[in-house]
Structures are given as structure tokens and as C-alpha cells.
Amino acid sequence: MATARTPAGLAAGTHGGIGESVPRPDGTLKVTGEFAYASDLWHEDMLWGVTLRSPHAHARILSTDVSEALATPGVYAVLTHGDLPAATRYGLEIQDTPVLADGVVRYHGEPVALVAADHPETARRAAARIRVAYEELPVVHDEESATDPGAPLLHPARDDAHAAHVPHPNVVHRQPVLRGDVAAARARAAVVVTGDYEVGMQDQAFLGPESGLAVPAEDGGVDLYIATQWLHADLRQIAPVLGLPEDKVRMTLSGVGGAFGGREDLSMQAHACLLALRTGKPVKMVYNRFESFFGHVHRHPARLHYEHGATSDGRLLYVKARILLDGGAYASSSPAVVGNAASLAVGPYVVDNVDVEALALYTNNPPCGAMRGFGAVQACFAYEAQMDRLAERLGLDPVAFRQRNAMEQGAVMPTGQVVDAPAPVAELLRRVKARPLPPERPWETAGGGPDVRALPGGLSNTTHGEGVVRGVGYAVGIKNVGFSEGFDDYSTARVRLEAVAGQPVATVHTAMAEVGQGGVTVHAQIARTELGVSHVVVRPADTRVGSAGSTSASRQTYVTGGAVRHACRAVREKVFALGRARFGAYHPGWAHAELLLEGGKVTTDAGEVLADLAEILEDEVIDAESEWRHRPTEPFDLRTGRGNGHVQYSFAAHRAVVDVDTELGLVKVVELACAQDVGKAMNPLAVTGQIQGGTTQGLGLAVMEEIVVSADGLVRNPSFTDYLIPTILDTPAIPVDILELADEHAPYGLRGAGEAPTLSATPAVVAAIRAATGLPLGRVPVRPEHLTGT
């Protein structure tokens, strides 16, 4: 029997396979403004949907009067909680989120009512005419107000899987991780460092707002065109709300303008469908920027207490940590974020004695859930600050100290899991440190006048270099890849191969949400590599094919890419079988050689052409569907945290160089170099872009980005005027050093790449600011007043 293998390299006639920097098919369209985003959707005779939201963080709804809104000309429907036809709650894991407020609002901006009208302004005016009487209730805003004996219970009737294992009903989930004997290790420690740290609430700040179009169908169902991260999770939550079987809720992905975790939960999906089914007309909903800040979850703000102990020669003996995450009003993905924070709390270091507690609270603050880095970002900021403080106490170089304690392949995580793939932590640190430093005083020009763009404060011309001090800082982080803790993490791919106009053409169909990560490009690259064809069509993602899981957790290239590869290989075997049947009698190679698909031909491993692929196919259409899973994981023990909870780990290190105006408290990040192991760079240019993008979001958290929430639970800065994100003028040079150390357990040896750089960028920048100012800086984002003391 002939055997088959994937070609080590593509033949000269086939370009665009894995390992090449293939241009993105949507790249030019996005740059030129021609790409169709979900907010561009249009349907003849469509209505516009608008949401009325609560002005209070915690209040009882005493009465709702919609009569004036319904009487507004052009209004077709007004819906409140009492109009819901079926299920009234939804949620990714815990179904605790009301579709519309159910008598109590639990956060500022919670949806209370919906309006459909023939014009968006009409809908907004009508929504403003809905009269809601509220009785304000005490606001739960921090740990003390959440866990006091007399604290209001935000979800008194909890019956979820975590309810029996938490110390208070306002704790969503608690996860300890215990290893060794911390008390005994503390007694042996020559140096002990403790620290308290705080991470503000960061927004995903995707540029494309939440948007979608729901179209009622003749069969009583609905077609939803939507910008999301996870089509099938949306479907699973929407169908019960509509009272419809899942096959009558047909979802198609529309153009997505970024996500970063903020589209993993529902926003307006169910609302648009409810309005469409009520009115019998297509309904479009688009959030403006103000509403977008209320329409999706954010990164969990955190308070962290850490204690590290080390020997006099710089060996870590123990880590004790408590990580408190504010989950806001509803659970979202808080339980999984807690699991990540707890299991990754020590960082990429070898520590034999660990006592970690991570927990998330229910409060009346905005709901928090998935955001790039998913619990590991908050922990990384704290443990890397601790590593710098320990190095200083020990009189050691901060990089050398980290390298001395760095994990490598074969190391054991605090959870007991063995790291069974490359873990080049020390090498990543070596590479960023070995880079030449950028020149000092870059604002000085040959003409004598300063280039203020290179100074803190930039074009505001606040300084010409007076009081500007340089600092350099380092950090490294560890992030899991894929869904964890026993979740059935799989993806489905359908691949078809046929001859069109005499040329072999492959078609790839998955439900993967392309949110800007470049998955569409990579899927085509995999098909070219596995099937040896030049022409690949990637069909739009929809629910007519099985689930691809979420575009999150750095998992899509690994899991959906694995499914595409598996389906392609099934197609390839069918091609070889067809070739043997048609041409096997004419050449012994069909029976005895190792067969390859390269350049649109079937060849032997010796390079001999046996047949053109189009000749083999003729009028045949060969297809295959694959449901592919990575290695199983298991839940963490609820008492000890033991368990093989993660399928893969990724690592990145940063060196930050900053100039700080110590008089005004302004920071200019000059360079933010990154080294990262990606296993296999499937598309090197795209990988570089992911690393630079993640690095920039980490920079934003370090010095700019925070949703400000008052003690009464009100969001104070829901706009890009007051919520600042890095622009091109704020973003420094980000040189990237890519390592490719294959993980033998992963398709092509790849390692999820999108999240790891977000972790270490933040602590590296803050470490550099500390080096420049000498200030302890235990909170991010670092603001000017933290540096000036004003």
C-alpha cells in the first residue's frame, strides 16, 4: 500500500502554504475602507433597534410605562422583560444574565427595554420617552461591601456548580492552588518580599461597535448576521430566549472590527432577533461608542497581595498570593478567569512551595469577562514586580535572577502539571537583553532644536528635555493556550476538492470567527500545503457547519487549524484512492511509492509525476468533514488546585525603554522589544503583527487605559475622549524576535501566539518607569499624578 506525507516544502508550482507571509485577503479592503463590517449591513424595509439602559448601578424597577414610546410615529414595537416569549436569562457558563432587566437592575447600563422604529433617531427618541420608576438600592462595589455579613445578595437564588464551594454567595468562584509547605519554606528564606498591587478595569476598545441584522424567515425562524467571536455559543444562548429550536436560528458571521474577548458574550444578538420576530421585519442594531462601553464585558480589575521568599543566592523558595477579581454584576467567564489567574499566579518560574487563592466577586460594577490575557495579565503584573523587588533586595541583576529561576521543559507547574513542550524562558530573556539599546536623548537634532515628537508630552511641547530621565525594565510571562479545565475543546472543518475550469480548487468551510487574527489566511495556507493546490476558497463562517469554538484563548490556529488539516488529509486519502482506481494499473508507484500532492499533481517522494490532480478528479467532488480535538485537560481540584488543567503554554518576554518627564509625570515609551516562542510561525508577518498588537494593548494598560467606576457604580468615562488608547504617536518601535521551538503535541508544532505578549508588556513598561523614577508604582495604569505626587 502506498503511504502519504505532508510535503516538507511546497513545490515550485504551489505558493502560499504554511510558513509564508501570505497577504491577508481582507487586508487591502480594510486599509482602503472598502471592507464590509457588520455595521454596514442593510436590508430593504428594515427597522432600527435601540436599547434603553439603566442609569443606576443597583435599583428596583417599580414601574415601566411604554405608552408614550408606542405612540411615537414610526415605532413598531417596544419590549420589556414581561414581553419575553421564553427563557429570560442567558450566560456563557452560568445563566444569570437577564435578557432584559427582571425587576432589578444590577449595573449601570443594564438593558431595560427595546424599541424598533423606522429610523434610528425615531427609535432613540421613543426610548427616551419610556418612563421607568426606580428605587435605588445599596451598591456593592468592593470586597468589603460584597462579603459583609449584611451585604445585599446580588443573586440570592444561585444554583450553579460553584455556589456550594464559595465562602460567600457574592463570590462567583474561588480556586486555591497548594503545593509543598509554605510555612517551612518561609522559615528558611533569607529574603522575604511582600507587595500589594492593583490593576484597573481595561476595555477591549475594538473599533467596530457591536452590530447585527436579524431577518425573520418564512419558517418562523430568524437569520442573524452578526459580529461575534463564537457563533455556536451565541446560538446555544439565543435559541432558548426566542423559544425556537436551534435549527431555526441561522447565524452568519459579518465583518468584525476587532474583539479581544469583548464579543464572547451576547450583546444585542437576542435583542435584534426578538424585535425582528415581534415586528415581522428585519431589524438592525448598531451601538454607538458610548453604548459600546456598556454593551460588553471588560477586563477584571484586580487587587493582588503577594509574598515571595528566596535564598541568599537567589533561588525562589515559596510564593504566597491572593488574587481578588471584580467580576461585576454577572458571571460571564469569571470562573474560567479565576482558574487561569490561580494556575498561572507564580509565573514561568520553578517554585516548590505555593499557596495561592484566586476568587472573583459579584458586585454592582460593570460585568467583566474575557479579554486578551484572561486572568494571566493581572497576575503577571504582580509577580514580575515582585521579581524586580527580590532582585533588588538580593543585589542581583533582574534578568539574571529571572533566568536562575526560569522553568524549562520538564518543569512542574504549581498545579502538578508537567510542562512537556519547550519552555525557553531564559532564552527569551537573553534575547531581549542582548538587543542594542536605542540611543539616548533621541529628541536632539543636528539643527539644534529638539524634535518634540520624541519627548514625553510629544507635540504638546511640554518639555525640551528638562527633567527627562530614562529607564529600562524587563518582564516575562506565561499564558495557557486553548480552553482548559476539562472543557471539551474541539473544532469542525469541512473541506471540498473539485476541478473547476480544469484547475483543482479547494473549499474550506468552518464556523471560525475571523475577528482580525488572520485565521482565514491560515486556513487557506493549510489547504494549499496539505492538498498541493493554488486555488483555495474560504467560505463565510456560519452555523451550517459544526462549531469551531471561540476565537479566543489563542486557540483557533491550533484547534480549527487542526480540524482543517485533518479534513484536508482525509480528502487527500480519497484522492489517492481515486487515483489508484483510475491510474494504478499504469504505474507501480501508485501501489508502492510514498505519495505527495504538490503543485496540483500527485507525485512520488522521488519527484516523479503520476497524474495531474484535475485529471484524477474529472467531475468528482471529494469532500470530508472533521471534528478535531486537542489532548484532554481536567478540572483543577477545588481544594488543592491539582490537575492537568491546560493543554499548552506560551511564553513571551519584553524589554521596555522609557523616557519620563519627572516634573510633569509624562511617559514616552521609546522601545518595547519582544521575544516569543511561537512553535511554528504559520504566517511570519501575521505572527509579528499579533505580537506587536498584543504588546500595544499591554502598553495601554500600563500607562493609559482604565474604565473609571465611581463608588456608586457609575461609569465615568464611556468614550474615546476620556478612555485613552494608544495611537500611532504613542506606540513605540516594537522589534520582535520569533523563536520556533516545535510543540510535538500541536499541529505543525505551532503554539498559540496572540495573548502572551499582552502579559509581559505591561510589567516591563512599569519596571522601566520605576527604574527612571525610583517610585514603587504598584498600580496600573500609571498616571501622571502617581509620578509627581500631586
Automatic annotation (TrEMBL):
Pfam family, one: Ald_Xan_dh_C
Single annotated GO MF: xanthine dehydrogenase activity
Tagged with keyword Transferase: no
InterPro entries: Ald_Oxase/Xan_DH_a/b (IPR000674), Ald_Oxase/Xan_DH_a/b_sf (IPR036856), Ald_Oxase/xanthine_DH-like (IPR016208), AldOxase/xan_DH_MoCoBD1 (IPR008274), AldOxase/xan_DH_MoCoBD2 (IPR046867), AldOxase/xan_DH_Mopterin-bd_sf (IPR037165), Xanthine_dehydrogenase_dsu (IPR017609)
SUPFAM superfamilies: CO dehydrogenase molybdoprotein N-domain-like (SSF54665), Molybdenum cofactor-binding domain (SSF56003)
Broadest EC class assigned to this enzyme: oxidoreductase
Keywords linked to the UniProt accession: Oxidoreductase
Residue runs in coiled coils: none
Domain Aldehyde oxidase/xanthine dehydrogenase a/b hammerhead: 32-138
Region of interest called Disordered, as start-end residue ranges on this chain: 1-25
Enzyme Commission code(s) on record: 1.17.1.4
NCBIfam families for this protein: pucD (TIGR03196)
PANTHER family (alphabetical): XANTHINE DEHYDROGENASE, XANTHINE DEHYDROGENASE SUBUNIT D-RELATED
Name the record gives this protein: Xanthine dehydrogenase subunit D
Higher taxonomy: Bacteria, Bacillati, Actinomycetota, Actinomycetes, Kitasatosporales
